[in-house]
Design brief:
The protein has 258 residues and is an alpha/beta fold. It has two domains: 8-72, no CATH class; 79-254, Rossmann fold. 28% of the residues lie in helices and 19% in strands. The strands form three sheets. It has a six-stranded parallel beta sheet, sandwiched between helices. Strands 1-2-3-4 form a four-stranded antiparallel beta sheet.
Amino acid sequence: MRRFPVRDGEFKISSYSDPGGIIKTCVAVAKTSDGVAVRHSQDSGKSTLFFTSAEWEAFLKYGGFFGGPHTYMARAKPKLYILPGWGHRITDKNYQKLIAIAEKKYKFVPLRIATRNRKYALGNAKSLHQIIKNITRQIALPSSDDVIFGFSIGALQAYLVARKLKFNKIILCSISSVLENDLQTYSKSEALKIFSPLQCREMRGVRYYKLKNSILLYGEKESEITQTRSKSLGKIVEIKEGDHVLDNAYINTIKKYL
């Protein structure tokens, strides 16, 4: 490891340090012409880490900035997770528009999910609970500054994930209303065309409840059950002349809430 001389007076304590806290996060940084040194501010006798200016700048690009009377370890951008509708892909034009709109404020993080299965709307015939568990495992914690977005069946998945994890914003668009008694709006044969028997049993047993920080959008022309269920789950936004389609009018409305 490269080393260079650094005087104690050159170290500045991060304003994010909390020496009185339980974890005692105490970081001191010295920026010199030779590079950057980092050490524990409460125990200067411990090892000091040395970085070249290029290495430090690479870190700052993704994790913080240096300036003012202190060194600030700035938080990374909040993350944006998107769960597309059945048959959709994140590479589809309108999802890419949404990502482009959000990228100045959020870091888009792709999820490994199946959306193009021809038979099953949830991507496969597995347990609904297992599908949601698999998505939840991909969310980086803590997620309290992040946003989760879903459209149609993706909105249903986002809703169920947000019941397990805390998000700053939960944006649910044209949510598929198939939990609890809503599944009865479909005939048994219709439901089994897009969900497995196991999934149907599970969905009937899931009870709805409102989530804090949730925004539900739907089109003016959408089905009565979609509108009614959306109104019962949180703050609502109706898109004039809108339908169950993620079009430009829908995206222009969404960006107001990102």
